[in-house]
Amino acid sequence: MLGRVLGLLWACGLAAGSVTVVERPTVLYSSISPKLRIQTSAPIFGDVLESAISLKFTPSLKPSAYNISIVSDTVISLALNAGKKWTNPSSADGMTLYLTDLSINGANQIGENIAAVATVIPTPTVKRAEDNVIYSSGSSTKLVINGSNFRSKALKLVFDPPLEESRDYVVSVKNPNTMVLTRTTGTTWRDEPGPLKLRRIDTGGGYLRIDPAYGGVTVAVVQANLDAHGVTVISSPEQRLYQSESDITIRGEGFNTTANVLRFNNGLRGKGINYTAVEHTSNMLKLSLGSKSKWRSNPANLPGPLVLLAVDAGGGFVPVGPTTMKKGRTVATVFEDPKVSKQFKVIFQTHTHELWITGQGFTRGTYNTVFTFDPPLVNGEDVSVLVMNRTHAKVTLIQGKQWITSGFDASQLNLLKVMSVDTGAGPRSMGGIIVAKVKSDSEDHPSGVSVSRSTQVLYQTAAIRKLVITGSGFTEDTKLTFIPELTKDTDYTQRFVSDTKLILSLKKHKKWRPEGGSLLVRNVKIGKDDPVPVGSGGQGLQVAEILQDPEIEQSERIMFASHTRQLVVRGTGFSLEGTLLTLSPTKPSAYEVESLDPTEMILKLVEGEKWAEVEEGKSAHVYVTKVDTGAGEVIMPEDGVIVAKIESDLDDNHCDDSCEWALDGMCDDGSGSGRYWWDDDYGGYYGYDDDYYGYGYYYYGDDEFLAPVCDEGTDCTDCGGPKTSEQIVECDNSCQWANDGFCDDTRTSGLCDLGTDCHDCGSASASNFSTWDDDGWWDDDDNYWDVDDSFTFGSRTAGGDKEASGGGGMFISFLEGLVYLVGAVICGGGTYMALKWYKGQGSIPYHLAPTSEEHEFSKQGNTQVPITPDVHYT
User: Which of 45, 100, 613, 686 is the most exposed place for a label (fewest CB within 10 A)?
Assistant: First the structure.
């Protein structure tokens, strides 16, 4: 009773502010370090619940960011909650975290005794550098590693293969984003060729594992020292040429001035087999293609890069890029040889609205196909060209123009020819291929009734505009026959304006065409007269271009306010000649159209702009409110269609959904290591089969090359949150059964590798599927606290034995005595048996029968037992 009174008086005294906090400012990573321990000078946490403790910090740290656990009467531990940060340091040097208030049941225990409890530094990140090729020794003395939040103070690195600081290298931090390693004399980066990986980094808060699923981040690819290992090649994708074009120039350094042997990723071979090297200098090679060869042969993959993998300048092959990824250097962009097919299609001067040109090698999008005609037709002024695929292009006559603008003679044979084609690698002469015979319009309309060609643009159903038909000889009872078929008073209503003009209005729930395309008038019937054929003898004359109704596909792809540079908008009916979207709340000036096809638009964020203003921890939607594909603005219903979910740049996510194929249910960014990889529909890879020459790659066949469809970390929802190349994560969701609500790695069922089911299990060093264990993150906290193994949860005083007396104390004493008695019996029996065996008066009645392996081992008389993880001997 007296003890309790003294304890109460002691607690009251502490409430006056006599307690101090032991200042041991632990270094913490802002978002990675899991716990912070706080120790007081007096035992104030005995018989106190965690819920009774409240803390205040500077900078502010919300109670929702951590959980409190009582370790002993003088120590509490704060466990950082998932997705939270201790604070946001403004620089790599970090900032101090102060405890300004420690209250128990509302009573401040430390008064004005403010204490520094931690130094918070930003979490370092390391960038991948799989393109960085260095040599084992020789001239490769420096290695640059890029990332963020590097600190000179307390910097420690762990490499695979191991490198020892000061012995193998010295490190210099140039700035928070760059460090330079200088190799010391007489050492090598690696004994054998292969990747050099950074496995762990410590900038002051303890070692952090980097990309553990892959054994670390590759910071360089080490190649063997060769006599001519200084060969380098300059990438030149801007050098464009056609498949059969004769010469190509390769530039670089360290070439042999007499002879060089090259390895291309498509199996091209020199010495006259496919090409001949006709000129060698130390910084330039000139190659001439053989008469029956092509730089790249599979047209389905063109335009595409010609990749040089390795050069032998006399001392053996030296890869000019990482060999494991078959990247090499792009020395040219190869285009399919363009061709135009001859045809004698009859067209009329103005009544024929379009002409299809067939051939091969036509390009669209990044590269535009340009035809040169005779007689001349100016693209954009007289005609417009739309390439549908590599073999078909549609040439449309602009309203008010003619197929032959000068020198047309109705009595002569007027031919339209294609003189040259430029698909991206320069004009290629066609020698005057005939593509049409042009006739006079009078031959198309011998009667007085006519219809004028029109390129007015309408949507399939949207009644923004009416269809205007102009011509001559119209009456009140004029009847038109359309292609595709339309019925008067069923599909549309017709209003007679004059003998030269009719206005047609589409009826509700009807369409001008089932799909986008030209609307043609085939014939015109006036009263009871016979129908008058229109357009090339009844083949039809264009009166409108019908655009497919634009539709926007709803999506909540995850994006960041400014970190995500691309927004993919999917839908239907997008016009290749121009589509305008109105977004909300994104400003029109904040983005530009990067690419466009009929079902997808990719918008690129302008530097310095944001998709939306979002507070940290919150999100906002981006809507498409209006669409205009050429026939006027179509207003989306209600607030518009959601196309993205924008999160703050400060959120602790490591991925987004900017991949073109995001949200399709399949992982497309190459991070799905636990999924099937051989098909894009199952794992995010596509085969790179160029069908070159069948010689194969000098390490493996060309058909085996796989590459991810999208950049890593850009298919967040489908891949389960993979790491990106610029961020450090302790785990990922590459497990095939990730995101199913159950932990599936080696900590439970073992279906997947450790750390591959991050969502369900938590990181490999901090599980989230079981009760938090205060000592579960670090193997031993002795690195941080010198009192870790000496915490006491109670004290024994001189009067403690008296207080322990009673029924409970007697029961405990009885149990202790029973344990001692059993122990004495066992020890006594064991001693008796050992004594008899020693005197030879008996034998141990039971023994383990040796296995056949042990029996053989004993016969050999070996005294040294090899110890391996898989074999045990007794």
Answer: 613
Q: Give the span between the Cα atoms of 458 and 102, in whole angstroms.
A: 71
Give residue-wise pLDDT tens across range 527-570: 888 888 887 656 788 899 888 889 999 988 888 888 888 898 99
Whether the CA torsion 568, 574, 580, 581 is positive or negative: it is negative
First-to-final CA distance of the chain: 58
List beta partners, residue 406.
none
Q: Which helix (H) or strand (E) holds 719?
A: helix 716-719
Report pLDDT digits (tens) over 358-370. 999 999 878 889 9
CB 570 within 8 Å of CB 612: no
Confirm if 804 and 794 have CB atoms less than 8 A apart. no
CA–CA separation, 820 and 395 (whole Å)? 102
Token digits of residue 613 = 């203003």
Same domain, 110 and 245: no
Give the range with max mean pLDDT: 94-103, 649-658, 689-698: 94-103
Environment class of 511 (CB within 10 Å of its CB; exposed 0-12, middle 13-18, buried 19+): middle
pLDDT at res. 540: 82
Looking at 313-327, 417-431, 621-635, which range is the least confident one? 313-327
The identity of residue 701, as a single letter, is G
In this structure, what token pair is assigned to residue 377? 């037709």
Instruction: Tell me what pLDDT residue 797 has.
Output: 37
Contact between 612 and 587 (Cβ < 8 Å): no
Q: Is residue 11 a contact partner of residue 107, using CB atoms and an 8 Å limit?
A: no
Domain housing 663 = 551-719
Query: Which residue, among 346, 352, 349, 345, has the nearest Cα to 409 in the 3D structure?
Result: 349
Q: Are 419 and 404 in contact (CB under 8 A)?
A: no
Cβ–Cβ under 8 Å, residues 611 and 562: yes
Residues 151 and 24 in one domain: no
Q: Which amino acid is at 349?
A: Q
DSSP symbol at 19 = -
Cβ atoms within 10 A of the Cβ of 726, count?
A: 16
- What letter would DSSP give residue 379? B
Helix (H, G, I), strand (E, B) or coil at 167: coil
Is 195 exposed, middle or buried (CB count within 10 Å of its CB: 0-12, 13-18, 19+)? buried
Q: Which residue has the higher pLDDT, 397 or 714?
A: 397
Strand ranges for 346-466 from DSSP E: 346-348, 354-360, 370-374, 383-389, 392-397, 414-422, 428-439, 450-451, 457-459
CA-wise closest residue to 30 among 91, 116, 75: 91
Nearest to 272 by CA among 260, 285, 288, 286: 288
**Residue at which a domain ends, from 304, 335, 366:** 335
Q: Is the pTM of this model over 0.70?
A: no
User: Which ranges in 81-194 belong to alpha helices (H)?
Assistant: none
Mean of per-residue pLDDT scores for the chain: 78
Q: What is the dihedral of CA 564, 566, 568, 573, to 10 degrees?
A: 150
b/e per residue 368-395 (b: at least 16 CB within 10 A): ebebbbebebebeebbebebeebeebeb
Q: Examine the domain organization and report whether 93 and 136 are in the same domain.
A: no
Q: Which of 283, 302, 335 is the last residue of a domain?
A: 335
Residue type, 82: A
Give the C-alpha separation, 390 to 387, whole Å: 7
Strand-pairing partners, residue 66, are: 80
Q: Using CA atoms, how far apart are residues 404 and 375, in angstroms rounded to an integer?
A: 6
Q: Between vectors from CA 383 to CA 381 and to CA 386, what angle results, nearest 5°?
A: 125
Write down the pLDDT at residue 126.
92
Ranked by mean pLDDT, which of 340-344, 652-656, 729-733 comes out on top? 340-344
What amino acid is encoded at 154 in this protein? Answer: A
Q: Look at the chain and report how many structural domains it folds into.
A: 6
For residues 256 and 282, membership in a common domain is answered with: yes
The residues, any chain, with a CB within 8 Å of residue 744's CB and separated by 6 or more, are: 735, 737, 738, 751, 752, 757, 760, 761
Other CB atoms closer than 10 Å to residue 751's CB: what's the count? 16
